[in-house]
């Protein structure tokens, strides 16, 4: 069973940066597409970025130009570099396979506030 442990969240001021990490138990090489998702209070979970095994990324319009997803298949880790953060980026962030996710991890809280 694949499991995900997200880390790197925190409180940051608008315009700040954070780098999220996702440690995957098991090989992510077998997972063709990995994604970062987020869920804000009272809203549905949404996909914000995804990356295929070969390293080609794709982003939601809301984060394009500000977020960068990457993956290290050898270390079974996925990253999300988040720059120019906005209050509307506040959410719990999760990583998982896309489009058919495994069980969800605990996520990591990102709060953007002055």
Put the structure in a nutshell.
The protein is an all-beta fold. It has strands spanning 3-7, 10-12, 18-25, 33-39, 46-52, 57-59, 67-72, 77-82, 91-97, 108-112. It has a 6-stranded mixed beta sheet, with no helix packed on it.
**What is the overall number of helices?**
0
Low-confidence stretches: none
Biggest β-sheet description? 6 strands, mixed
The average pLDDT value, as a whole number, equals 96
Number of strands: 10
Radius of gyration: 13 Å
SS-based class? mainly beta
Strand arrangement across the biggest beta sheet: 2-10-9-4-5-6
Give the SSE order as H and E letters.
Answer: EEEEEEEEEE
Query: What is the general shape?
Result: globular
**What portion of residues belong to β-strands?**
over 45%
Helix content: under 10%
Kindly, what is the distance between the CA atoms of the first and last residues, rounded to a whole number of angstroms? 40 Å
Could you describe the 3D structure shown?
The protein has 114 residues and is mostly beta strands. 0% of the residues lie in helices and 50% in strands. It has strands at 3-7, 10-12, 18-25, 33-39, 46-52, 57-59, 67-72, 77-82, 91-97, 108-112. The strands form 2 sheets. It has a 6-stranded mixed beta sheet, with no helix packed on it.
């Amino acid at each position: 069973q694949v499991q995900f442990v997200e880390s790197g969240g925190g409180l940051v001021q608008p315009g700040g940066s954070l780098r999220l990490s996702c440690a995957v138990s098991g090989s992510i090489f077998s997972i063709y597409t990995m994604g970062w998702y987020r869920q804000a209070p009272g809203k549905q979970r949404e996909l914000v970025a995804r990356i295929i095994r070969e390293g080609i990324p794709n982003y939601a319009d809301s984060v394009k130009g500000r977020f960068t997803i990457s993956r290290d298949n050898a270390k079974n880790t996925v990253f999300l570099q988040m720059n120019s953060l906005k209050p509307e980026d506040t959410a719990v962030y999760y990583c998982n396979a896309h489009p058919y996710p495994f069980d969800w991890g605990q996520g990591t809280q990102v709060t953007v506030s002055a």
